[in-house]
Write a structure and sequence with these properties.
Layout: H1 2-42, H2 56-60, H3 67-74, H4 83-145, H5 148-166, E1 176-179, E2 187-189, H6 197-209, E3 229-230, E4 254-259, H7 262-275, H8 277-282, H9 284-296, H10 303-319, H11 342-352, H12 367-370, H13 373-376, E5 380-383, H14 389-397, H15 404-411, H16 421-428, H17 433-442, H18 444-450
Parallel strand pairs: 2-4, 4-5
Antiparallel strand pairs: 1-2, 1-3
Length: 457
């Protein structure tokens, strides 16, 4: 009996101990929760702990390590950050804004400097142009004070000087036509094409040969004057005043030509093909067709496309003047436009010059070569641009003043107007550097002899 009572007492004591332990545990838990709640309330509004499922035992493990910091970090939201991180973000944003502002200021400064540089360059250009004008003005005033006779005399001296200085070779040209009817000893004319040559040709045909004359059915054709030409076969040596003396020409005959700015001559010849379709047909085999085909053929075309475009070109040219008008492809480059362009013309000259007769065509051949100025000893050379003043000097020297009205009426026609400096510049803009350099070299002697400016590079 006593033994049973002891057992009951032990059990009661154990139960009381368990209750005491449970009471102790829950009191500590409440204390921890109150502490956590107080900590949370004191944090910035953006930083809150997630409800923790960790126990005190968990936090007490590895208390000598970085467990408290890890536990702190693990209770943060993924997109939440500390005040230190907020400060770092703000500083980074400020640095980025400063960088962008500095970059913008740098660009504005560069643009301002570039604008200033261009303005200074423009001012320098204008200053140099002004200085050049100041230098040229006295020369121009002096030139204006000179008579046409003085200007022509100085030109003839330059011709001799250039021939001597450049040691220009004999071009073996005999393009001079002699007419005994005019002057005391006759006159001899070298036709510089596109420099009033048609005016003089027509005059000689009408006043020497008459209305019945023709060449292959054409009245106004240089071929009509074939019997008047001084050829190499009529060359009979030289004299004290001339390197070439021809049979049938007296020693006191007056030799002359009319010249024109070389680029203006090219433009005039080109415009003829551009403005008159029949000239495209007439000059097709000389230079027009090759200039167009070579300049506009795409190497990527297949044979069928190229053949189609070429056939349409052939039909177009053959129909010129016939009254027929076929329809053609809108994308055929040979027909849009159906005439050569200035760069295409220059490319043709560059391919053929010095190689064949096409390249030596008198319409673009330098006057120094075409008239063989260094061998034929001309007596007077006038400029088309300086007519009518120099024209009157020439007529006086040729003793042909009675024909003054005839020549002056032709001079006033639009076909005899030389391209202006502005027009020449517009055409030259179409050329590339190689083409410009080629023309300057090709016409170097003409530029120097006749006082024309070369092409600006």
């Amino acid at each position: 009996m006593v033994r049973c009572s002891k057992v009951v007492v032990v059990q009661i004591l154990a139960f009381v101990a368990v209750l005491g332990l449970l009471n102790f545990y829950f009191k500590n838990e409440e204390t921890d929760n109150a502490t956590q709640q107080s900590f949370d309330e004191n944090l910035p509004t953006r930083i809150k702990f997630k409800p923790s499922v960790q126990t005190k035992a968990n936090l007490e493990t590895d208390e000598d390590s970085e467990a408290p910091e890890s536990a702190y970090n693990k209770t943060l939201e993924p997109d939440d950050q500390t005040p230190e991180q907020d400060l770092q973000d703000a500083q980074e944003k400020l640095r980025q804004e400063q960088k962008e502002a500095e970059e913008k200021a740098r660009k504005e400064e560069e643009e301002a400097q570039e604008k200033l540089r261009k303005e200074q360059e423009e001012e320098e250009k204008l200053r140099k142009e002004h200085e050049e004008q100041e230098k040229i003005r006295p020369e121009q005033e002096l030139e204006q004070n000179k008579s046409p006779e003085q200007i022509i005399d100085e030109r003839m001296l330059r011709v001799k000087d250039v021939c001597k200085r450049l040691n220009y070779p004999n071009s073996n040209q005999f393009n001079m036509y002699h007419f005994r009817k005019f002057g005391k000893g006759g006159i001899s004319w070298c036709p510089t094409f596109k420099a009033s040559s048609s005016t003089w040709r027509d005059f000689f045909i009408d006043n020497v040969l008459g209305s019945h004359a023709n060449f292959m059915g054409v009245h106004y054709h240089l071929g009509v004057l074939g019997n008047q030409i001084l050829t190499r076969y009529s060359l009979r040596g030289n004299s004290a005043t001339r390197r070439r003396v021809f049979s049938g020409e007296s020693d006191d005959s007056v030799r002359f030509t009319v010249v024109r700015h070389p680029i203006s001559r090219l433009i005039s010849h080109l415009r003829k093909a551009q403005n008159y379709p029949y000239e495209v047909r007439a000059q097709r085999g000389d230079w027009v067709e090759e200039s167009i085909i070579n300049g506009r053929t795409d190497p990527n075309w297949d044979s069928a496309t190229q053949s189609k475009f070429k056939q349409e070109w052939d039909v177009y040219v053959n129909e010129i003047g016939s009254g027929r008008h076929s329809s053609f492809s809108d994308d055929n480059p040979y027909l849009h436009p159906p005439y050569p362009l200035f760069p295409e013309m220059i490319d043709f000259i560059m391919r053929h010059r010095g190689r064949d007769d096409k390249g030596n065509n008198g319409h673009w051949r330098p006057t120094i070569e075409w008239c063989d100025l260094c061998q034929n000893d001309l007596d007077i050379i006038i400029q088309l641009e300086e007519e009518p003043e120099e024209l009157l000097v020439l007529l006086e020297k040729l003793e042909m003043m009675q024909y003054k009205d005839n020549f002056l009426s032709k001079h006033n026609s639009s076909s005899n107007k030389s391209a202006s400096a502005d027009e020449i510049r517009e055409y030259v803009k179409q050329l590339n550097q190689e083409q410009k350099e080629y023309l300057n070299k090709m016409y170097q002697a003409d530029f120097e002899m006749f006082g024309y400016d070369p092409i600006p590079l």
